[in-house]
Design goal:
The complex is a heterodimer. By secondary structure, chain A is α/β, with parallel strands linked by helices. Helix content of chain A is about 45%, strand content about 20%. In chain A, α6 packs parallel to α7, α8 runs parallel beside α10 and α9 packs across α11. Chain B has a four-stranded antiparallel sheet. Classes of the chains: A alpha/beta, B alpha+beta. At the A-B interface, α1, α3 and α9 of A face β2, α2, β4 and α3 of B.
Chain lengths: ~450, ~90
């Protein structure tokens, strides 16, 4: 029998500590939509998404009501559009069909305008990459991702070079809205096929036809639990583990219920501490609660390593299938602690890069000056990819060169995407290094030092 | 389906009557009640069963919330599953 104390604890987590399920994401395979005709492919894509995801928003809302836990976003991820559109070349048409289906079903985002070019790109994939800026500028809810590196293949530096240019062009085409297009474009190393989080969600080729993946959240719950801890860091880690277990159990329950109600496979629960710009829902504040004056101070990487590891240890037993990006996220614009620290100069890009070696996922939602050259963005991507490839983990870059803005300015993206101060980037040029192209070979996995 | 109903409000005569009568009218079967006074606030936790109730759970939640507002109480209903999931292995 559940005790009154336990009931009040759960209610407190929801009411005052922002416990929520960040997203229910339905992965849909679109292989059966492929045709050699552009319009026909787009029509099939629209029809399948609109049919499969018809009840997704309704089910998400019903589950939220039944369990009394908000389900913040309902999303769809699809088979990489670069594969679905290869036979017809109608990539842009697919993007429009995705956006139309997203509007029709009322979901928040749709991901999978994606290419996987970690080892090399076909002519078709190169054509696809060229469509990304325009596709993101012409749609509202479509998210795009490109995998440019893996621990098995190394780093495709030709693709890295292209991505710097694509990010710049996307930012330019959406310059009227603080270059928001770049906030919906992520460049990965070791991308995962079952990630429910945007902008990087896509439905991998090894996945079933219709799959439900759930991303949990709960930085506020962890912060509140740590406020009660006066002990050493062992006690801190134990508290994070116990809290992560409880949060993840909610995610598991929601995922199983949603899969059943939608007639889909239960895929995975993504054990994540995903912040929002709301007060009391910040990963940065957790690190500060551990004892740092500001996130970004010396000690930040160690504190984050403890947090990330304890979240995974606590969550892993709470779910029958764990996957996605699982870990603490550090998107600057979506975390009030990070925003403040970046504004006052406590948190720098270099510190963020160090942090990404011990957590999920990378240089995320970082606004940089609009005049940052493409090769510098490519070099940021290369650095993150190197951290991922060498350490056998997923890393990513979602940097937004905000058109017309410079260090000291601020960009606003709205909603969950939040706002961000423009951060300083090293101006020394990596042009020759990036221009070389080619591939950085896959790393040795023994003799680790 | 088993549910947990929480009731919080300023203490006064007739709170249990107000809530239990309302639930009885909706064919909701109360299987356990605990209540306590915290300062001047009355808090009650009810465990109930919806098997005999025809009302869908989302409508029931809304009806209870509205009833609560009309008599100065904060009433919430949730599926018991979420508490089991979080606190029991």
């Amino acid at each position: 029998m559940i005790t009154d104390k336990e009931i009040f604890e759960t209610m407190g987590m929801v009411r005052s500590q922002h416990l929520d399920v960040r997203c229910i994401t339905m992965g849909i395979s679109l292989f059966d939509c492929i045709s050699s005709d552009k319009e026909e492919t787009a029509r099939r894509v629209y029809d399948k998404i609109a049919t499969y995801a018809k009840d997704l928003v309704d089910v998400g809302n019903k589950i939220a009501t039944m369990y009394g836990v908000p389900v913040v976003n309902k999303r769809v991820s699809i088979t990489p559009a670069s594969l679905v559109g290869a036979a017809s070349g109608g990539y842009f048409e697919i993007a429009k069909a995705m956006d139309k289906a997203a509007a029709e079903t009322g979901i928040d985002f749709i991901g999978g305008y994606t290419a996987l070019v970690q080892k090399g790109a076909t002519d078709k994939e190169n054509a696809f990459l060229s469509t990304i800026p325009e596709a993101l500028a012409a749609t509202k809810k479509v998210c795009s991702s490109v995998n440019v590196a893996s621990s098995r293949a190394g780093i495709n530096m030709d693709a890295v070079k292209r991505m710097g240019e694509i990010v710049k062009q996307t930012a330019y085409l959406t310059r009227e809205e603080d270059s928001i297009g770049a906030a919906k474009l992520v460049t990965f190393a070791n991308a995962v096929e079952d990630n429910p989080f945007m902008a990087g969600a896509f439905h991998g080729t090894g996945e079933a036809d219709k799959v439900i993946n759930v991303g949990v959240s709960g930085p506020g719950v962890v912060k509140a639990a740590l406020e009660q801890v006066d002990g050493d860091l062992t006690a801190v880690a134990e508290t994070v583990k116990k809290t992560a277990f409880k949060v993840t159990r909610v995610g598991q329950l929601v995922a199983k219920t949603a899969a059943k109600m939608l007639g889909a496979e239960f895929g995975i629960v993504d054990l994540s501490l995903a912040p929002t710009p709301a007060i009391g829902d910040s990963v940065g504040r957790i690190l500060e609660e551990m004892g740092l004056e500001r996130v970004g101070a010396c000690g930040t990487t160690a504190a984050l390593a403890l947090l990330n590891d304890a979240v995974k240890k606590g969550g892993i037993m709470a779910s029958s299938h764990v996957g996605g990006l699982s870990g603490a996220f550090i998107p600057v614009s979506e975390d009030i602690g990070m925003i403040e620290a970046a504004e006052m100069g406590a948190l720098t890009l270099e510190r963020l890069e160090a942090m990404t070696s011990v957590c999920s996922v990378g240089i995320d939602m970082v606004a940089i000056p609009g005049d940052t050259p493409a090769e510098i963005i490519s070099a940021m991507i290369a650095d993150e990819a190197a951290i991922g490839v060498i350490n056998h983990k997923t890393t990513a870059v979602r940097a937004i060169p905000v058109y017309g803005k410079k260090v000291g300015d601020s960009a606003s993206f709205g909603g969950l995407l939040g706002r961000a101060p423009i951060m300083k980037v090293s101006g020394y040029s990596p042009l020759k290094f990036i221009s070389r192209g080619g591939r950085i070979p896959a790393p040795l996995s023994s003799n680790k030092n | 389906m088993n549910v947990i109903i929480s009731v919080i409000g300023k203490d006064r005569i007739g709170i249990i009557r107000d809530v239990s009568t309302f639930l009885a009218d909706l064919n909701v079967n109360i299987v356990d009640i605990s209540q306590t006074l915290m300062g001047e606030y009355f808090t009650m936790i009810m465990r109930a069963n919806l098997e005999k109730s025809d009302m869908p759970i989302d409508k029931l939640i809304k009806a209870l919330r509205e009833k609560g507002e009309s008599v100065g109480l904060d009433i919430n209903l949730r599926s018991e599953d979420i508490f089991d999931a979080m606190h029991r292995i």
